Amino acid sequence: MRLYKAIAATALAAASGIAVPVLNRAPAHAASDVGVIANLWNWNWNSVARECTEVLGPAGYGAVQVSPPQDSMTKGGTVWWDIYQPARYELTSKFGDEAAFRRMVDTCRGAGVKVQVDTVINHMTGQGATSYGGYGFSKYDYPGLYSSQDFHQPTCQINQGDYRNDAWRVQNCELVSLSDLNTGSEYVRGKIAGYMNKLTSLGVSGFRIDAAKHINPGDLSAIKARLVGSPYIHQEVIQGDQEAVQPSQYTGVGDVDEFVYGRKLREQFTGQIKNLRTFGESWGLSVPSDKAVVFVDNHDTERGGSTLTYKSGDTYRLANLFMLAWPFGTPQVYASYTWNNSEAGPPSAGGGYATDVNCSNGQWTCFDRQVSGMVGFYNAVKGAGVANWTDNGNNLIAFSRGDKGWVAINNEGGAVTQTFTTGLPAGTYPNVAGTGTVTVDSSGRATVTVPAKSAVALHTGSTPQPNDKQATVYYKTSWATANIHYGINGTWTTVPGVPMETPCTGWKKKTIALANATSLKAAFNNGSGTWDNNNGNDYTLSPGTSSVKDGIVTANATNPCGS
Predict the structure, then answer these.
(1) Which of 210, 219, 255, 302 is catalytic?
(2) Which of 190, 409, 412, 459 is the most exposed place for a label (fewest CB within 10 A)?
């Protein structure tokens, strides 16, 4: 649900050390064995299915969280929040019909990826009269489903002061005028459980409970008791200092979305990441590791300014890499669409129905692809403690996960070369956070150059990539500045991509490491919203030198700027 209430962040000064050779820290127990969750927010069902097959399954993601699938009031695609105002529990949403939803679930399960559903059960609508599925309703009347007696009566509105002073009002009054379901009613509980049981019968494995903070935990427990099987549950309970309703009150129902986590990472990645040596529950996180679903951002926080977002560029990627490397909670990677207007809905057509995701047109972040290598890292090091911590007293940190993995994260403005103790067995390892390989000697040490705003991550069981290749592209343009947005083996840079240099008048240049890939896909833009994406087909570039001029790629090209 939208973050309607501003939450004040709590400052923390954490101790740090420079070049500390060993830190023996036992791993915090993760919330579950779900694995890494990809939150593909506002992706339609066809696109989720394709992503499960092409990216999530091969990368080792354990689950995908999808947006609310129930029929909702419609704003014709102009906003994102209409899907959080249910009109009925039929699967006729802006993301596809029930048949498409079934195909998506089956496809994802076939790829080894479990499906979790964002579930809206606290309320129905606050406005509108027609749903995406063509169903007519009013605020307290949903023919064949609910009528006025199924909502908390008499109606009341949650006031700002209630959050600190009155838990009952927070859980029984209306959140921003949304009709608040009486979840203490046996009838209402039965209807909600029936909806959730239908989803599990289709193969859904878990639920994210939207606005759980506004439902009494006893009501949630009663609904959970009606569910068939044991679906995984995590709940949206946004922590607020000294508030009457706290996340810890919900851990008996299931796991909890840990909102403090992303706030703390933003503080450090915009400050000094050396402090992360002690990162954990002692920093004021709202629930223990074994009850926490953690994330750098989600659809609420990226619009609220409390966390890093895709707009933070490389810093955002580094924070996500840290999340996947550090042992706390169950990590969730967020991938959605780009936006300038925080109210705007996803790319849509035909009355507001979300269009298929295109990861190369600048409209979608597809961030799950950018950290896919670190999902394998997370899976490889599970259960191993933190050791061999090193930092430079500022914004370079490195640590191992037992003898299973090692990572260095450089949030500095320049490259750092250093000899590190990795704790790994001798061998040559691919950098799963980027490109290239690293050789570890018999003492577990390696000399590594970590580029600016980048990372190097190694883990056992990975396959070395000894035949690293490069592609150098020259791009003809009149733009003063140019970026290249590129993808290697399906993993794309963050929009708008990386800046290109100007080797001579009229040309831009970039050299890209390919590792063992045989080609890359690319599109170009001026950094201000103007794109050259080859009419939606992307450019395909090969190893060696290529030039792109007037929409034509020339392979094995000569340097247009001279030698």
Answers:
(1) 210
(2) 190
